[in-house]
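4.2 Preliminary Data

To establish feasibility before requesting continued support, the project team ran the inverse folding procedure on a target of 569 residues. The structure was first converted into the token representation described in Section 3, and no sequence information of any kind was made available to the design step. The complete token record follows.
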């Protein structure tokens, strides 16, 4: 088994004392006991922000550590101990401190704190003690999902593989190899499905209890407030689902028909369709631009250097400071993400690379998130003002996928680069139906389905949606229920209702890239300027700062699909 980089392990080290409330309680109490008039607020906020950053920092490091070591009972126990011992009292203290701040007579927040102040007011109104206790249970349930999937293995041709390693074989140009890999993955997924069914049943009950404790009619209503979704409503999401169904699904269906024709296939079977990496129409081997994680770091560093010296410097900092853990190995969560350690303004990227072009794209995506952390952290001293609302947070990552396209000549030959670019554009079109399906499923689950919804009903609803948004995949003769288990996906368990943001931001990233065709330097400066704004302005203002519109309506989608068709042609 390949071990995590030693520098990464040092970065994640947390002294035992910081796992317990005793490390923080007295400082919280001092903030609560302090005399607080309007002139005192800025300095008091700085102290509170610094303490909050410490708690967030430890939580993030413990979380990453347990994701890197899903089979390590000690790592899991350290994280759960922190969640149980530190998180509840810190949430109670945060509520008391918000109430203290909101009660200060004559205090008017500065412009760069006004939005956070409003969010504090809304969060204070939503707070319930019962949900603090319930939050510990909720975290334990989500971690059960991480343990099941992190330890999942695939048996293929006598070998035991990780999920990413098996997925690599599922992209092989040889159809028989693809089918064997797909069936092995399906068997592995069906093997863990009963356990995930039980986790989901528990999560649904817990999530509805959050809503009941706050007197709201559904978990969707509760999440809408928790996520501060003030710029759009559920009806806008429903309109997005319909627009994707009517404008994108027919376009993607035509692309799939053309692909099947070029490959001399009657139709595409599940092992022929990967939304992240559509088959090559000429049946060529998948692009394999690197072998090891170290090689991926090196080729990415050159790409960032060609794009912008400042961005390259940040990536160099990550390489030299143990802030990257890229290679796939047993006992490591199979997802990719960017975590953030706020005390020293450090992002951390976890991936599972196996040498594909898709790994290159995901690296640029996750490091785009890292740039967001760096730039917002540099510009915004208060921890709550860093990053951004979630409707914007995927733009830095998705835009970086596009902005690096012209800086990969050292990675790919001209023909390979054209293929990579083509894949990137195809990927946007293929992603939107998936995003609409994911979002529609959650709207149904948490606002329309009964609280005691059964697993069979979950499967049936997912199957119905899949027929709507992916009608071009031929599942004839395939039983065993694997298609109906498509809802057993990371975000459904770990980040409820966080998915439509990917679609919003992909549309905006395409718009940014379109602008960069005419003015690359200006587009990059707007990109960095928007990142520096952090959480201090509204979602529409952030989009405008980046050079995009906050829109995901039918006409906007239709226009961007026309642009993508032209680029693909």
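Position-by-position output of the design step:
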């Amino acid at each position: 088994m390949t071990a995590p980089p030693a520098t990464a392990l040092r970065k994640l080290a947390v002294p035992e004392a910081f796992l317990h409330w005793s490390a923080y309680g007295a400082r919280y109490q001092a903030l609560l006991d302090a005399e607080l008039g309007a002139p005192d607020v800025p300095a008091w906020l700085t102290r509170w922000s610094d303490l909050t950053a410490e708690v967030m920092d430890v939580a993030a490091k413990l979380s990453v550590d347990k994701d890197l070591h899903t089979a390590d009972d000690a790592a899991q126990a350290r994280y759960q101990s922190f969640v149980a011992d530190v998180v509840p009292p810190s949430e109670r203290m945060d509520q008391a401190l918000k109430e203290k701040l909101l009660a200060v007579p004559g205090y008017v927040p500065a412009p760069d704190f006004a939005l956070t102040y409003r969010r504090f007011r809304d969060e204070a109104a939503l707070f319930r003690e019962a949900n603090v206790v319930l939050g510990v249970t909720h975290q334990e349930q989500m971690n059960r999902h991480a343990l099941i999937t992190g330890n999942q293995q695939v048996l293929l041709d006598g070998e035991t593989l990780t999920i990413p390693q098996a997925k690599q074989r599922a992209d092989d140009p040889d159809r028989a190899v693809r089918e064997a890999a797909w069936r092995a993955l399906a068997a592995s997924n069906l093997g863990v499905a009963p356990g995930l069914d039980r986790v989901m049943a528990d999560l649904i009950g817990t999530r509805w209890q959050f809503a009941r404790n706050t007197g709201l009619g559904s978990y969707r209503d509760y999440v809408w407030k928790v996520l501060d979704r003030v710029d759009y409503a559920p009806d806008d999401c429903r309109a997005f689902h319909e627009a994707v169904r009517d404008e994108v699904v027919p376009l993607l269906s035509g692309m799939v028909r053309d692909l099947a024709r070029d490959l001399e296939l009657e139709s595409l079977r599940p092992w022929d369709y990967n939304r992240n990496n559509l088959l090559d129409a000429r049946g060529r081997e998948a692009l394999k631009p690197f072998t090891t994680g170290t090689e991926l770091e090196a080729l990415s560093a050159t790409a960032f250097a060609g794009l912008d010296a400042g961005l390259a410097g940040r990536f160099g900092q990550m390489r030299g400071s143990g802030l990257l853990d890229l290679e796939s190995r047993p006992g490591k969560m199979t997802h990719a993400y960017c975590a953030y350690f706020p005390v020293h303004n450090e992002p951390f990227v976890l991936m599972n690379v196996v040498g594909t072009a898709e790994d290159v794209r995901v690296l640029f995506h996750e490091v785009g998130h890292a740039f967001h952390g760096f730039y917002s952290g540099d510009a915004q001293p208060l921890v709550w003002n860093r990053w951004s609302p979630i409707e914007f947070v995927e733009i830095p990552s998705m835009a970086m996928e596009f902005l690096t396209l012209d800086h990969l000549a050292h990675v790919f030959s001209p023909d390979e680069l054209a293929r990579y670019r083509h894949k990137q554009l195809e990927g946007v079109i293929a992603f939107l139906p998936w995003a609409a399906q994911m979002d529609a499923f959650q709207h149904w689950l948490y606002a329309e389905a009964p609280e005691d919804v059964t697993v069979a009903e979950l499967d049936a609803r997912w199957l119905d949606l899949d027929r709507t948004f992916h009608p071009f995949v031929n599942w004839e003769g395939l039983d065993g229920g694997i298609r109906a288990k498509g809802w057993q996906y990371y975000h459904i368990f770990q980040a409820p209702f966080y998915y439509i943001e990917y679609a919003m931001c992909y549309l905006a990233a395409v718009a940014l890239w379109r602008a960069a065709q005419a003015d690359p330097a200006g587009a990059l400066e707007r990109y960095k300027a928007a990142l520096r704004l952090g959480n201090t302005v509204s979602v529409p203002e952030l989009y405008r700062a980046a050079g995009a519109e906050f829109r995901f309506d039918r006409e906007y989608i239709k226009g961007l699909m026309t642009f993508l068709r032209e680029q693909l042609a």
